[in-house]
Amino acid sequence: MSSPNFSKIVEMPPGDFTFGLIKPGVQFDVVAEIYQMIQDGGMELHTLPPTVMSSGDVRRLYYEHIGKHFYARNEAYLMSGPSVRMLIVGMGAQPLWRQFLMPTIREKFVAKWTAPDQQHLNLVHGSDSALSALREVALLWPFPGRWT
User: Fold this and answer.
1) Most CB contacts within 10 A, which of 10, 11, 53, 73?
2) How does the average pLDDT of the chain come out, rounded?
3) Set 46, 65, 69, 125: catalytic member
4) What domains, with CATH codes, occur in the chain?
Protein backbone atom coordinates (compact mmCIF):
# COMPACT_ATOMS: atom_id res chain seq x y z
CA MET A 1 0.00 0.00 0.00
CA SER A 2 1.27 3.44 -0.84
CA SER A 3 2.39 6.11 1.59
CA PRO A 4 -0.28 8.70 2.39
CA ASN A 5 0.02 12.24 1.06
CA PHE A 6 -0.26 14.21 4.31
CA SER A 7 -0.33 17.62 2.63
CA LYS A 8 -3.46 16.46 0.78
CA ILE A 9 -5.00 14.93 3.90
CA VAL A 10 -4.71 18.01 6.11
CA GLU A 11 -6.64 19.99 3.51
CA MET A 12 -9.52 17.50 3.37
CA PRO A 13 -12.92 18.26 4.88
CA PRO A 14 -13.43 16.92 8.42
CA GLY A 15 -14.49 13.31 8.35
CA ASP A 16 -12.79 12.43 5.07
CA PHE A 17 -9.94 10.61 6.82
CA THR A 18 -9.77 8.61 10.00
CA PHE A 19 -7.46 6.51 12.14
CA GLY A 20 -8.23 2.84 12.59
CA LEU A 21 -6.54 0.11 14.56
CA ILE A 22 -6.82 -3.65 14.22
CA LYS A 23 -6.06 -4.92 17.70
CA PRO A 24 -3.87 -7.87 18.82
CA GLY A 25 -4.86 -11.43 18.11
CA VAL A 26 -6.91 -10.86 14.98
CA GLN A 27 -6.14 -13.64 12.51
CA PHE A 28 -4.45 -12.75 9.22
CA ASP A 29 -7.41 -13.91 7.13
CA VAL A 30 -9.67 -11.61 9.15
CA VAL A 31 -7.23 -8.70 8.68
CA ALA A 32 -7.38 -9.31 4.91
CA GLU A 33 -11.19 -9.30 5.02
CA ILE A 34 -11.20 -6.04 7.01
CA TYR A 35 -8.90 -4.46 4.42
CA GLN A 36 -11.23 -5.63 1.67
CA MET A 37 -14.31 -4.23 3.45
CA ILE A 38 -12.62 -0.82 3.70
CA GLN A 39 -11.63 -0.85 0.04
CA ASP A 40 -15.06 -2.12 -1.04
CA GLY A 41 -16.48 0.92 0.77
CA GLY A 42 -14.56 3.10 -1.69
CA MET A 43 -11.90 4.12 0.83
CA GLU A 44 -8.16 4.45 0.26
CA LEU A 45 -6.28 2.39 2.86
CA HIS A 46 -2.76 2.96 4.22
CA THR A 47 -1.29 0.63 6.82
CA LEU A 48 1.82 0.30 8.91
CA PRO A 49 3.46 -3.07 9.59
CA PRO A 50 2.02 -4.79 12.67
CA THR A 51 3.70 -3.50 15.83
CA VAL A 52 3.19 -3.92 19.56
CA MET A 53 1.90 -0.72 21.13
CA SER A 54 3.88 0.75 24.00
CA SER A 55 2.28 1.88 27.24
CA GLY A 56 2.82 5.46 26.05
CA ASP A 57 1.00 4.74 22.77
CA VAL A 58 -1.96 3.28 24.66
CA ARG A 59 -2.03 6.25 27.08
CA ARG A 60 -2.02 8.73 24.18
CA LEU A 61 -4.75 6.86 22.32
CA TYR A 62 -7.04 6.29 25.31
CA TYR A 63 -6.08 9.21 27.58
CA GLU A 64 -9.72 9.94 28.42
CA HIS A 65 -10.10 6.45 29.90
CA ILE A 66 -7.06 6.48 32.23
CA GLY A 67 -8.27 5.66 35.74
CA LYS A 68 -11.49 3.97 34.63
CA HIS A 69 -12.13 0.41 35.81
CA PHE A 70 -11.39 -1.16 32.41
CA TYR A 71 -8.28 0.84 31.48
CA ALA A 72 -5.64 -1.53 32.92
CA ARG A 73 -7.22 -4.54 31.18
CA ASN A 74 -7.43 -2.61 27.90
CA GLU A 75 -3.82 -1.44 28.18
CA ALA A 76 -2.58 -4.99 28.85
CA TYR A 77 -4.59 -6.31 25.91
CA LEU A 78 -3.26 -3.66 23.50
CA MET A 79 0.31 -4.40 24.60
CA SER A 80 -0.15 -8.20 24.33
CA GLY A 81 0.66 -8.48 20.64
CA PRO A 82 0.94 -6.63 17.36
CA SER A 83 -1.71 -4.19 16.16
CA VAL A 84 -2.14 -2.76 12.67
CA ARG A 85 -2.43 1.03 12.42
CA MET A 86 -4.55 2.20 9.51
CA LEU A 87 -5.17 5.52 7.85
CA ILE A 88 -8.49 5.38 6.01
CA VAL A 89 -9.08 8.12 3.46
CA GLY A 90 -12.10 9.03 1.34
CA MET A 91 -15.34 10.95 1.36
CA GLY A 92 -17.05 10.29 4.70
CA ALA A 93 -14.29 7.91 5.89
CA GLN A 94 -14.67 8.70 9.60
CA PRO A 95 -18.43 8.10 9.89
CA LEU A 96 -18.28 5.13 7.48
CA TRP A 97 -15.58 3.40 9.54
CA ARG A 98 -17.08 4.23 12.93
CA GLN A 99 -20.81 3.79 12.30
CA PHE A 100 -20.92 1.02 9.71
CA LEU A 101 -17.70 -0.94 9.31
CA MET A 102 -16.74 -1.27 13.00
CA PRO A 103 -20.12 -2.75 14.07
CA THR A 104 -20.16 -5.00 10.97
CA ILE A 105 -16.67 -6.28 11.75
CA ARG A 106 -17.62 -6.99 15.37
CA GLU A 107 -20.79 -8.82 14.37
CA LYS A 108 -19.11 -10.80 11.59
CA PHE A 109 -15.88 -11.81 13.30
CA VAL A 110 -16.14 -11.73 17.10
CA ALA A 111 -17.55 -15.25 17.51
CA LYS A 112 -14.95 -16.93 15.29
CA TRP A 113 -12.07 -14.78 16.55
CA THR A 114 -12.46 -14.89 20.32
CA ALA A 115 -12.99 -17.43 23.05
CA PRO A 116 -16.33 -16.98 24.88
CA ASP A 117 -14.59 -15.37 27.87
CA GLN A 118 -12.93 -12.77 25.60
CA GLN A 119 -15.90 -11.61 23.53
CA HIS A 120 -15.98 -8.30 25.45
CA LEU A 121 -12.75 -7.28 23.68
CA ASN A 122 -13.03 -5.07 20.62
CA LEU A 123 -11.35 -6.21 17.42
CA VAL A 124 -10.86 -2.70 16.08
CA HIS A 125 -10.61 0.92 17.15
CA GLY A 126 -11.91 3.92 15.24
CA SER A 127 -11.72 7.63 15.89
CA ASP A 128 -15.00 8.88 17.38
CA SER A 129 -14.90 12.24 15.59
CA ALA A 130 -13.03 14.14 12.91
CA LEU A 131 -11.07 15.97 15.62
CA SER A 132 -10.11 12.68 17.30
CA ALA A 133 -8.99 11.34 13.92
CA LEU A 134 -6.65 14.29 13.45
CA ARG A 135 -5.26 13.88 16.98
CA GLU A 136 -4.82 10.11 16.70
CA VAL A 137 -3.13 10.25 13.29
CA ALA A 138 -0.80 12.99 14.52
CA LEU A 139 0.10 11.02 17.66
CA LEU A 140 0.37 7.50 16.30
CA TRP A 141 1.37 7.73 12.64
CA PRO A 142 5.01 8.39 11.70
CA PHE A 143 5.41 10.94 8.96
CA PRO A 144 7.82 13.65 7.95
CA GLY A 145 7.13 16.84 9.89
CA ARG A 146 4.57 17.19 12.66
CA TRP A 147 1.11 18.68 12.92
CA THR A 148 1.21 20.99 15.90
Assistant:
1) 53
2) 82
3) 125
4) 19-140 (3.30.70.141)
